[in-house]
Amino acid sequence: MTSTHSLHLWLLPLVPFAGFLVNALLGRRFPRALVTAVALIATLIPFLQVLGIASQFSSLSLPHLEQFGTWIAAGSFHADFTFALDQLTLVMLLVVTGVGFLIHLYSAGYMAHEDGYWRFFAYLNLFMFFMLTLVLAENYLLMFVGWEGVGLASYLLIGFYYTRDSAANAGKKAFVVNRVGDFGFLLAMFLFIAHFGTLSFSSIFSQITAHPELHGGFLTAIALCLVLGATGKSAQIPLYTWLPDAMEGPTPVSALIHAATMVTAGVYMVARTHVLFDRSPLALSTVAIIGTATAFFAATVALVQTDIKRVLAYSTISQLGYMFLACGVAAYSSGVFHLVTHAFFKALLFLAAGSVIHALSGEQDMRVMGGLRKKIPVTFWTMTMAVFAISGLPPLAGFVSKDEILYHAFTAPGPGKLLWFVGLFTAFLTSFYMFRLWYLTFFGENRAEKAAAHAHTPASSHHAEVDEHHHAIHESPWIMLGPLAILAVLSVIGGWMGWPEGLGGGNWFGHFLAPALASQHVAEAGSNSLEVTLALISTLVALAGWFLAHLFYFAKPELPEKLSVSLRAFYNLLLNKYWIDELYGAVVIAPVLFLSRFVLKGLIDTGVINGGSYAAAYTTQGMGAIVQRLQSGNIRSYAGWLALGAAGLLLLTYFGFGAHLSLR
Amino acid sequence: MTANFQLLRILPEVILTIAGVLIMLIEPLLGHSTSRKPLGWFAVLSVFASLAASFAQLGMAAGTAYYGVIQTDAFSVFFHVLIALIVLVSLLVTIDTANANTESLGELFALMVFGAVGMMLMTSATELLLVFIGLEISSISTYIMAGFRRKNVKSTESSLKYFLLGSFATAFFLYGIALIFGATGTTDINAIASQLGTSAVPMFATIGLGMILIGLGFKVSAAPFHVWTPDAYEGAPSPVVGLMSTAPKAAAFAVLLRIVYVAFPALHAHWQPLLWLMAAFSMTIGNLGALRQQNVKRMLAYSSIAHAGYLLVAFTALSTDGIAAASFYAMSYAAMNVGIFAVVSHASGYDERLSLISDYRGLAYRSPLLGGALGFFLISLIGIPFTGGFFGKFYVFASALHSGMVWLTIIGLVNSGIAAFYYLRLLASAYSKPTNNALLDPMPRASFALLLALVITISGTLILGIVPGQILAMSHNAAVSLTSGIANPAPSATHQ
Amino acid sequence: MHSQNYFWNYLPLMMQIIVAVGLGCSMVTMSWLIGRHRKSSVKLAAYECGVPAEGDARGRFSVRFYMVAMLFILFDVEAVFMLPWAVIYRRLPAITGSRMFGFWEMLVYLGFVLVGFFYIWKKGILDWAQDKGDL
């Protein structure tokens, strides 16, 4: 299958890896300019290479495989270092390297005054390495390497960059929640090995296609395991809780990892595995339902958040829900299309939010923003493009891709109409909360100035800091604004490549992906008039959200306050994110900790209960202490446990399983 | 077969014995203040020689020596090499860690070498009594090493507890041998399988096997025979813990593999569910126990219990893949665990200045090298791909699921998820800024010995994760050589 | 080859164990049931062959006693190993197929014993006079 001329795909991940090594090992001694240069070049080269590949793409025989050696050969099972290139990969590569490079560029400005500059860029490059590995992998094992690697990089970037404990905890939470997802992914891999004897995409998919009679059954089990993995990485119900906390990381990280690339890995994986999902209606509907529910649920939470980055985080979860919905109705290319446009406008939103935060010297609370339109005009205009795009106003990118998903949901068999309706309502909410953010941040009067003018009393140092800097609200440097401008343009025109046929376009994007994502599902044939009608409805809905936000946060700013009072219970429910974190704490974490205590207390492990204090007391006493300890029943109880275990084991040996070897 | 040729079969042990005896002869002749480190380097050289001898055995045809009590094959060589490497690194770490407070350091080197002899004998012995002698040689060396900081109460306590409970467990092992002899009339592992069919009292053999499982379960600290582990590890000197948490376990696992797969494949209906239970309990108790630990060494002790559980999962697979996975896992666990104890040893020193997780705050700032190494080994212990820790687990669970052990695989995966939590605590502590200025003193400079130890363990962990092909092939050959001699294999032991 | 027979072989042993245990238990219980209990201070004092007890029973001995006792046992056991070797020595060439094999084996063994002896000697364990506080 390998085409005659090699594209040197191995260079794609290895160049960022080299950048990581250089910065990690030597960056401490480098001047900042050199660190920046290394990191930027290490991402620019892959981007240029991808562009080069794209330019000769039509002459390749697809999928284009490149094997670099055998990784594992154990008995009958083996896995290779193989990279594959097809249409889906190319799209992902363009997004990852393109958006990735822009965000690297932006970071050079954003992080200019921070400590640990070299570490930050080393980790970013490490992330690029793993992300590219994930996308290029031709088997699940290699994909899992990238899958875990991006999680690791995300952990490092969330938790390690700041020395705050909350950041460290957020990083840990992200990691541990993702482990739950990995559980599914690993189990799926083991099941693949058990049933197909291989983890290679091409060989698994060809085995499935070769057996048309395979349907449901263990395929569903595998697919559901993969879905669990995807919900972890892509922050879907039930494993979404880590993403809002992950906002502790620096804003460029949120843009790159927690909006544009890593969190879409789950969608990519489902799309990549579509051959399997097509055979399992149950798994597909699970994906659709999870997606729809997450989209709606996260959007409601986003309505009341006051931290600008958290609004965007919940919005990301919600938009990822749309992508899942698309996959769930077997409209994989629509899901990937939304993935692409979302990468543009959500990265832009985060970067613009970062620019706002930068301008306000670290303030993230929208309640003390406002009136920034004139002060940071470039940020304002670029963010406006993103807000319009995500809200689904035609003809921007978000409209095209979201509308396509809703259209496919509407025409899907089964509960498609219900999914469509919830999706539509979520679109309304999306438009509302995005315009809320827009108005709160850029319009009205500057509430920080107002607060500062009132008094110098605010207790929180936050405010004091803002107070100090408020007159220094400044537009960001061009190295940050450049990426914003490019992404703004992409947010506007990015959707045109997939303009649906029903609306007079060619849907070039869908046709391009078709060979890689050919679905066996045939949706009800929709008519052009239906598509036009649906598009019209979603436009109206988006406008309604805008109008309502205008009413609430511009025309009559006292309304939200009143509403939150009259709907106190509901408001609190949303504000506390449905108490899901608390629920998980009570249902999952508390029992584990209880069990842990039980294990230790039950086995008389005094070491943990008294911690270090007893150790310190110990060393000062002489031999008497040992005797005491030995006589305190400790060693006897140990021996007792040992004897008990031995007795149990012998009884089991003899009676439990040995019934057929009778004593006679 | 000539005597010289037979000697080749135990050449690695012979080399180490001679080296150990020489060290013991020189040690008392040295003055009180003379540095013992050259003795350590001599021990290192002898381990290298022993490694070479082990590899040379690969060139010979598999076979027995000395009236069939010793058998060298790919399996024994695999574990010989593993044990030699562990002891090598432990020696280096000891050389690095020892300071002026260390008394009679030469004894420690000699004990490590003697311990290695015992462990090596265990892996190549096919006579249960010789296994027992190897077990005792290795155990007694370890008991003494655990109490080597004689002035330290916790060290003495550790040694005493380990010794008392250890002898208790060894008694089970010995009694098991006696019962098996009573049932089959032989203590030759290779002959037991065929004698079992004609035994008048198969019940004795079953109970004897159960007793052997108890004795070895204690040695590998598998639940419910794990209670001694945290106390023993907490008090023993860190370089010794690195050794005793890996090498004797590897040897005991090798013996267990040989006994259950070569001698008792026919009784697999008895031992497989037992090992299933032990694996599930070990993983769960180990991880839950580690979750709340404040003391780093206790945490790692519980983590080692959990890892013993993962390894036992491979036993239940009843296939050559399972044996290979167990062997491979023993190696990858050894690489990362000895490595992390090298870091712990150097960071806390011979006097163990650091013991709690909070003491490790800011380690990465005090010494980027140690911080980086610690992070790397923790990542491997968590099981992130491209490290030996990931691939070891992957292989173990893949083989278990392949044999239909669905629930055990699920329990194991859930456990490895929980495990991330406590490893990350240590990692986060090492990388956060210290609150206490006293913890900001730079670390003592890393010696050449430590660097060598870290290079070996880190590259080992990476090789096992990135290019495991060679080692996988070795472990697979080991598994095949183990099962090929089976007269009456378990029904599922042959399928792959 | 019937396992029933196998266990029946040991019936006398079983009976003897039952009788022995029963006798011991019954003697203690009977004296406790039948005997009179008068608890005076003299009766409850430790019994030391009729003379009044002096000091604490848990006296401490120098660790050196234990060391020597332990070494004695070690070398004793090591010496005992030579006995079966000596008994079978003449037949060893026939058994091992090599004329001198048994001889060399014992020499190696004795070598190890000697090394151990040398070691404890040089470490000063056998030196009673010298004060080794750290022992």
UniProtKB/TrEMBL annotation, chain A:
MF-aspect GO terms: NADH dehydrogenase (ubiquinone) activity; NADH dehydrogenase activity
Pfam (any one): Proton_antipo_M
Subcellular location: Endomembrane system; Membrane
Gene Ontology BP, a term: electron transport coupled proton transport
Membrane topology: Multi-pass membrane protein
The NADH-Ubiquinone oxidoreductase (complex I) chain 5 N-terminal domain, residue ranges: 71-121
Source species, domain of life: Bacteria
Main location: membrane
Occurrences of domain NADH:quinone oxidoreductase/Mrp antiporter transmembrane (ranges): 137-430
Listed transmembrane segments: 6-26, 33-54, 88-108, 120-137, 143-162, 183-208, 214-232, 253-271, 283-304, 311-333, 339-357, 378-398, 418-439, 478-499, 534-555, 583-600, 638-657
Keyword set includes Transmembrane: yes
Record-level GO cellular component terms: endomembrane system; membrane
Keywords from the UniProt entry: Membrane, Transmembrane, Transmembrane helix
Annotated PANTHER family: NADH-UBIQUINONE OXIDOREDUCTASE CHAIN 5
The protein's name: NADH dehydrogenase subunit L
From TrEMBL, chain B:
Subcellular location: Cell membrane; Endomembrane system; Membrane
Keyword annotations from UniProtKB, A to Z: Cell inner membrane, Cell membrane, Membrane, NAD, Quinone, Translocase, Transmembrane, Transmembrane helix, Transport, Ubiquinone
Matches recorded under Pfam families: Proton_antipo_M (PF00361)
Stretches assigned to the NADH:quinone oxidoreductase/Mrp antiporter transmembrane domain: 125-418
GO cellular component: endomembrane system; plasma membrane
Annotated function: NDH-1 shuttles electrons from NADH, via FMN and iron-sulfur (Fe-S) centers, to quinones in the respiratory chain. The immediate electron acceptor for the enzyme in this species is believed to be ubiquinone. Couples the redox reaction to proton translocation (for every two electrons transferred, four hydrogen ions are translocated across the cytoplasmic membrane), and thus conserves the redox energy in a proton gradient.
Quaternary organization: NDH-1 is composed of 14 different subunits. Subunits NuoA, H, J, K, L, M, N constitute the membrane sector of the complex.
Name under which the protein is recorded: NADH-quinone oxidoreductase subunit N
Protein's gene: nuoN
Automatic annotation (TrEMBL), chain C:
Superkingdom to which the source organism belongs: Bacteria
Membrane topology, as annotated: Multi-pass membrane protein
GO cellular component: NADH dehydrogenase complex; plasma membrane
Cellular localization per UniProt: Cell membrane; Membrane
Family the entry assigns: Belongs to the complex I subunit 3 family.
Function comment: NDH-1 shuttles electrons from NADH, via FMN and iron-sulfur (Fe-S) centers, to quinones in the respiratory chain. The immediate electron acceptor for the enzyme in this species is believed to be ubiquinone. Couples the redox reaction to proton translocation (for every two electrons transferred, four hydrogen ions are translocated across the cytoplasmic membrane), and thus conserves the redox energy in a proton gradient.
Protein's recorded name: NADH-quinone oxidoreductase subunit A
Organism encoding this protein: Acidipila rosea
Gene assigned in the entry: nuoA
